[in-house]
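Collaboration report, partner site 2.

Our partner group contributed sequences for two proteins of shared interest, and the home lab folded both. The records are reproduced in the order in which they were received, starting with the first partner submission.
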Amino acid sequence: MKFLNVIVLVFLNILVTAQPLSESSFIYLNSSYDELNPVLTPDGNTLYVTIANRPENMGGKKDPGDIWISTRTESGEWSTPVHGGAELNNRAFNGVAGFSDRGDEIYLLSHYDGNETPKTQGISVARSSGTGWSKPENIVIPYFQNKSGNLSGFVTPDRGVFVFAAETYGTKGVEDLYVTTRGTDGKWKEARNLGSTINTQFQELSPSLSADGRTLYFSTNGRKGSGSFDIYSSTRLDETWTNWSEPQNLGPEINTEGRDLFYRIYPDGSNLYTSTKNSDGYGDVKFKPALRSTPDSVIAARIDSVNIPARNDNNGGVKVYGKVINAKSGQMIQASVSFASIDVKEQAQTTRNSGFAVNIPPKDYIISIEAPGYVSTLEKVNVSNAQMNELEMNFKLQPVEIGTTVNLKNVLFEQGKTMLLPDSYPELDMVVSFLTKNEDVKIELAGHTDNRGIPSQNIKLSQARVDKVKDYLVNKGIDRKRITGKGYGGAKPIASNDTEDTRQLNRRVEFVIRKM
């Protein structure tokens, strides 16, 4: 599985004293495979790059990405990459988030469990042994979960901040950007969403920070841009990590009509990146020198003034395209993708080898994704104020199997009551459709609250809400014997209960497939 099938635009910090680079420096580094997430060591002489689906990866051609290593020769060229070895790689996606300022620690974008796919998620750290890296140690981030196929992010050289992109509970769309900081006790804190100024209902990916930690760089397909994914910058206005200036497109010197990600800028302003433009495969590493010798904060201020006009080549409509994949295997599947608004209905089909594409007027839509043998899902999207003419949306479906848990994120109740809100009906109707088409499936409904109030009352409320959902399904024709339900109150949180934003995540209804 490719990294969202996107090609990476990555900017690496080049030390002012390092030998200048040129486009020809990467003739031995680039290949017909997907080069992505390059990260340079602090001395500027070693490049760690993730390569997807290369046969020599730990998981072979199906491996979503292993770390490969290239070194700079005396002539200034980068050597042909060599595999990073079993210490840094397993069958999951492997990438580098950053290095400590002395280069004696490497932070890795995954957990490790031998050479197998790890059972837990997060980041890891390995330490220099003089001749290589020690075995990675998994880092615990409270309530960390990422439903996206890959993790992208950036650890600051002082090892105190980790910004990352993930699809998790509470995201505003698909992947959102989050931050976690390390306390004086050495433990990482629960991650915080960077807020609605940064995150849209579409995808935000591959964040990084300037040397002073004030400027955020990230890629998104949810704003006006040259292609489907463009790089943007935003300035942090205070210490909350949720107050940001309006993101600015980095302009045509950086962004192309292709997909551009993984921006990193360094003190001399030089940039390394990979792009789909003029590449012979999925992504090639390219280079742009510093325009002038200025700190990155000054460079950011200069390019913030660039304004890219919206394109008008689709008669005011939006072309939505993407793929539907198996959430477990990552393989494309045959599915039906339906877009419905008050006066518009469009449907697209995918196959096992191709995705979908549909042109829709700018409106609010409910998107239903269905496939035989998979749990149907529903998404909401608003393209009424879309700033792009093309939008990539990729969906994951879970196979129908015992133990599969589905969070009904659009099933909502009046506060403190059991009355279903009207916005709940489309998703509940999707559950009805799923159970109608899978007559052998039996489910358990699970109701959850936050931990405020009296525990016994929370259990009573969550049970009453489960009963209300069950009654709705039964009234729609589903046999009552196929549905059990239990209210758990606040006993099974998926986030902390310290803030209202995270308490909302804990107030939820799920269903679990119990029998087939």
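Second partner submission, folded after the first:
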Amino acid sequence: MAKQFYIGLGVTYHDPALAIVDENGEVVFAEATERYLQYKRALNCEPDNLYQLPQLLSSHCAGASRLTLAFNWRSKRPWYERSVARLGILSPQGLRRQGIMRLGSPLENYKLHHMMACQRNSMAQGGLNLVRILRELYPRCVIAFRDFDHHTAHAALACYGSPFDEAACAVIDSFGENGSMAFYHFRDGRLELLREARGIGSLGFYYMKVTELCGFDWLKGEEWKVMGLAPYGRLDEEVYALLKQTLRVQGLGLAHPRRSLFAALETLARRRRALSEPAERAADLAFTGQLFFKEIMTQILCNFHAACGVDRLALAGGCALNSSFNGQILQCTPFRELYVPPAPADDGTALGAAWLAFRAEHPRSLHQPATLSPYLGSTLSHETLERLAVFAGGLDVRHRPDSICEETARLLAAGKLVAWVQGRAEYGPRALGNRSILADPRDPGMKDRLNAQVKFREEYRPFAPSILHEYGAEYFEDYQASPYMERALRFRETVAERVPAVVHVDRSGRLQSVKREWNEYFYRLIEAFRQLTGVPLLLNTSFNVMGKPIVHSVEDAVSVFMTSGLDVLVIGNYLFTKPEMT
């Protein structure tokens, strides 16, 4: 019997990813390339790694007779990109060329042209490795190719992964084929494009510039640092006035007004934090930049609601990673329900493209609304884990197939720092209980301890609470289920003092709602902790150190465990502890 699979390739130069959908439209695999390579954001890397592909294909596409390769960008490039490419401006020598009229963007020309050059290269090599391996492993397999509009790939993930049967969908990022935003109406399993913004106006570029001004690096994805630092600052009226001169909303479009943009940027550059200065020096700038971001997003979404009249919002694109704003959408816009997918940035478009390819070939397939599980990535090698249990010299090893959750909960309640690895890895940037570092949220010194001894990052960076869903409204104001840590909500004053390690300076927390049907083991662990302490949540952060992706293999897990202040490593039903704990 013929077997068909759809392989989505996210060929963006940053955050490449690969996803596989079967002949029924079910997701069988989805993961960002950075995990396998252990290279943050996998900049300028192909999504179809030669060494990884044979294992992925044998595990998820066995017996394939037909494969459709789906790409997250249109192969036909925008006219400006084609023009500057022909002029040689996208070459190394071209990036140094002087005298070119500056584009009306917060970012300098050479940075924009570098992005374009990298994007062209990524698209050119995307799929080469996959087709080569397919020729060897599946020589008779029929291969088809499809390419999709970038923003539509974002929208497909947000809508087909949502629990909505109808939604307004907004995609807002740095750029697509024609602009930085697109707006859709999703109904009856179909996406209808309502409006696509055109031109260089970009809220993504704006936030990248704010990241630069705060002394951080957006190439490394350090917009997170701006969000974490913002609550420590106050409004800077001068900076606010300058930022308002850099970006304006025009209905469902954006513009960087040239007359005021460059003068404002020149003045703002004098306020930039030097790398030698402490991060706190940029707190007011971060606060003001985040505030203006909120105002722009609010205006856009209010305009969108007025245009479409649908109360459910599916939000995607890089700007949907701004969890601080996401938590305020239902209060400051007319939308009544919100869904943000687990991978709203470009890694998510790999699955969006695969789903679009499936829908293109099955236009009459019924869409069954359901919340997408984020646990779609790789599993750790059982054979390697068994070897670790035998050869883990110096570590205490316990196999607890019947009581791993309860024993781990006791260690957490005793103040131990636990690395917790179960099942399949999460798709998207956040650890959601399968590749997590966990701790007791009741300890007021826990945040500083984790930042200093495990994550090795700035002390102002907050940690997230993972809470049993049925207790969400008890702990958070305006609670709505948040399955992927996609929004920050305010803790209720009556409970904030119980869990100081996960309460940010503005009394917010980027929460993860945990339901038994979403993650049985993680639910059992938190419930065991609740029975011991009365607190139905745990501090949860990704199992990595600053600057590295979340761990991918048993070897990665052991490396972070042995080179940090972690006390306990749990992988499956095995519990490893360091000698000082025995």
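Feedback sent to the partner group on the second submission included the following. Residues 382-581 form a domain with the DHBP synthase fold (CATH 3.90.870.20). The longest helix spans residues 283-308.
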